[in-house]
Amino acid sequence: SASASSFADSAAGAAVKADDRAHVFHSWSAQGLIDPLAVAGAEGAYFWDYDGNRYLDFSSQLVNTNIGHQHPKVVAAIQEQAGKLCTLAPGFAVDVRSEAARLVAERTPGDLDKIFFTNGGAEAVENAVRMARLHTGRPKVLSAYRSYHGATAAAINLTGDPRRWPSDTASAGVVHFWGPFRYRSAFHAENEAQECERALAHLEQTIAFEGPQSIAAIILESVPGTAGIMVPPPGYLAGVREICDRYGIVYILDEVMAGFGRTGRWFAADHFDVTPDLLTFAKGVNSGYVPLGGVAISAGIAATFETRPFPGGLTYSGHPLACASAVATINTMAEERIVENAAEIGEKVIGPALREIAGCHPSVGEVRGMGVFWALDLVKNKETREPLVPYNASGAANAPMAEFAAACKRGGLWPFVNMNRTHVVPPCTITEAEAKEGLAALDEALTVADGHTD
Ligand code: PMP
């Protein structure tokens, strides 16, 4: 395949860019203010542009290329499936769909043994919520502030960040609560145990005042990702399990970002020994080579729909190309010990290096994470913890983060930046040498953020 050094075709890049600017309507963007990079190719942990610049991808795109770009086994599986059968309606049984469902079910915790396939994460959340409402006959869903669940109707309303605000009029039935987060605690807790205890008490009070009989589900990211990779204190996710059981509330864990190796286990829930009633997944299930997501369903909820139809479906549910890529991805991750690699690199290389980096930079307020799922919380002042940019900043107010991101890119590193944070979320396949290369570039770029501290 073409590598960055052997590849430079600026004229071709300019043509790609011209059509993009004329005709592609981009996500989350003011269309006239963006300048997207034209990408010519990608392999493993790298991608490159048409001018011969290569970037080490510390974002895994949108935290989805867990197996890296262009893994030959996954590419071959898609090609082989394309030669056999490209599409088939969801009502039929087909070999790759059956196998993908079994491989996912074998890895999800507990009795989550039935799989409803979707085209991505938001659709998984939509359908999980729908199942919970039908199962309980109750209307409300509780979700956390500082969360991201997708950009479709129910999913965006469940999302606990500013992206919800423009659609808030449609948020009927959604109630937000505070989850645990020591560094910016809503509970003024003095330690992790107290944070956990108070967060659980706050959730119980929220339930009491909303009326337990009206609550269908509580949805949580096992480890909230987009909102800042906030690893919950031990006991929190299990505590929510107990609360859900007490009130007959369906427990939905959203593992769209944290699942399939990201945290160094197949699912983040595995770290906390907890089994939800519904588990949503997407992204890492096939690293996004073909759009795919789904809901893993417990025996209890599956039973509701044994004799009564589930009133939902998607033309492309369990799409053969997507399922073939999932089968190849999951088998390859097992054969090549890719989940184990994520755990080892996180524990031995990334975690220790980020803690050292934090000690050297006044702009790094906190380091948190596990596996290949880490966040640096950037601050103006380590003592006050004032964020480097204000909440939901844009334009000039966001300049410190924009300058930091630009410095990363000049250093050959593609960062994941959200509000006042940069996330270190490379592919699960990243090698020690690649991780060290990226960490060195990050270390250098942070001097730009340091320039904006008090
Ligand atoms: N849930 C979580 C936890 C996510 O991180 C995301 C995507 N970032 C989604 C849901 C939505 O997934 P998608 O973009 O595939 O719809």
UniProtKB/TrEMBL annotation:
Keyword Nuclease attributed: no
Pfam families: Aminotran_3
Record's keyword terms, sorted: Aminotransferase, Pyridoxal phosphate, Transferase
Similarity comment text for this entry: Belongs to the class-III pyridoxal-phosphate-dependent aminotransferase family.
Source organism: Streptomyces halobius
Protein name: Aspartate aminotransferase family protein
One annotated GO molecular function: transaminase activity
Keyword Transferase attributed: yes
Organism classification: Bacteria, Bacillati, Actinomycetota, Actinomycetes, Kitasatosporales
Record field: transmembrane: none
